[in-house]
Amino acid sequence: MSLLVVGSVAFDAIKTPYGKTDKILGGAATHFSLSASFFTQVRVVAVVGEDFTEKEEAVFRQRHIDTGGIVHEKGKSFFWSGEYGENVNEAKTLDTQLGVFGSFNPQIPEKFKDSHYVFLANVDPVLQVRVRQQMPHAKFVGGDTMNYWITGHRENLKEMLKQVDALLINDGEARMLAGDPSLARAAHKILEMGPQALVIKHGEYGATVFFKDGAFGIGRHPFRAPTLPIEAVIDPTGAGDSFAGGFMGYIASQEKLTRDVFKRAMFYGGVMGSFAVEAFGTERLQKLTREEIDERYKTFRELTHLE
Amino acid sequence: MSLLVVGSVAFDAIKTPYGKTDKILGGAATHFSLSASFFTQVRVVAVVGEDFTEKEEAVFRQRHIDTGGIVHEKGKSFFWSGEYGENVNEAKTLDTQLGVFGSFNPQIPEKFKDSHYVFLANVDPVLQVRVRQQMPHAKFVGGDTMNYWITGHRENLKEMLKQVDALLINDGEARMLAGDPSLARAAHKILEMGPQALVIKHGEYGATVFFKDGAFGIGRHPFRAPTLPIEAVIDPTGAGDSFAGGFMGYIASQEKLTRDVFKRAMFYGGVMGSFAVEAFGTERLQKLTREEIDERYKTFRELTHLE
After folding, report:
1. Quick one: closest CA in A to B86, which residue?
2. Which of A9, B57, B96, B268 supports an S-S bond with A46, CB 3.0-4.6 Å?
3. In chain B, whose CA is at the least distance from the CA of A206?
4. How many CA atoms lie within 13 A of A239 on its CB side?
5. What is this structure's pTM?
6. ipTM given for this complex
7. pLDDT tens, A238-253?
């Protein structure tokens, strides 16, 4: 089934211990949709500037992603420049230029409004809510957020939390949002704020999904998916969005949302995140094949499988 | 089969966000042996002072642990006082008094020398090597160490690493020992230093075992065991030693060291660590039953099990 994503399509300049890039294609919606495209039909809603050319569009088209919701405006695309040290979980922002993204006000094209699956990538929660309200047929809505909205726009974020089925954030964001250093307690506090499921991404340690009692009729016990121990994280940018793409893409590809589907979605999320970090930007996802995904899925299963 | 542990039997005074204790029974060998005692016959070699009375000895005896290797000397037992903040992975040491432990020179009683399983808890690597050499019948030797020995006694530690089958350390120690921020790369570097298997404990994220190529004839693929997301870590002291106790105790209880045994040992390690933190000191392990252990083992399996 069709999966709609709303978020940033941007350019990044990245420095890591393994090298550096000039301005390359990036943005949450970009990583998300490339990742999800291996599982289902993806539709993107975003805004870009004049620096986004046919060359960048081709990256989406090659993966059969519907770019009909990418609005082209005068000016420059969102640009982020950052540097990672040895701790791949922490980026140091060197430069941020909002460009046309600064006045992003997503309008969902009519032809996208029948999407049953929706992902609200990390943008202003006011916009996330506005998008949600334009999608009356959505069966399952996932959402992301970040520190900036948690600390400075809490009331708007709370409204957004009531309108998503699953929130996907990382350890630090979960602790900050709940104001609680215990992840398990933080999870329960966040579930009380609205979402039926909370996926907490632990970086190189995998991810855990916590459920509200009775959520989706699949019980309340948490489930944890691993990641592969990776020798060289070339570029962690977009790992979380790639996780979300694998997770949402797999769910959108299935008829029913059972507990087993949720479990497999967590594993596919981990698999896609693990590929994303193997090269700079979207390079690895562009070259990826479904066979490689299935192969790694098996490896992940073996990694934790007890008879 | 009998499992010998050599290490500290001590007293701790602990403060955590959940409360504080006076001087209570602690020490690596204490947590280890209580934990392992649920799986196999345990023998302890340690030194204690006059403050270690019949009351403390009863804690071991109640779990049928052979205390014939605990030497009583004039003076005081090793004492550690520490405080944990909200980050349960970091203890702030308030006081350390070596007492009789300062001149610990473990002699293995004759009747213990037939032990097939040995655990060298965290003590001076010179002593660990000396113990290893007194155990010619050992089939499987596990060892632990800490920052202090990694930074200040590296040559001695390297000798110890050649004499253990499995090293059990945490993330920070692995990175420090290998001088590499990537856990996967650090693992390979450490395996080159000697051990056949390296168990890296990730605190609340579980633990991963890495194998040297062909180790124990069970292949080289890593295996990861989870931990339960715990709402309240009352006291993290001894969690790592309890993990090691469950891991080594389960291995010692099995006829052969297969890959499946190793996997289950990793899960039992996680299970025992998760119990240890539910109360101060050894309180939870003292009250634990085998039924509770098996119940939680099932929960852990469910937590990551993919059909």
Report:
1. A181
2. A9
3. B205
4. 28
5. 0.94
6. 0.91
7. 999 999 999 999 999 9
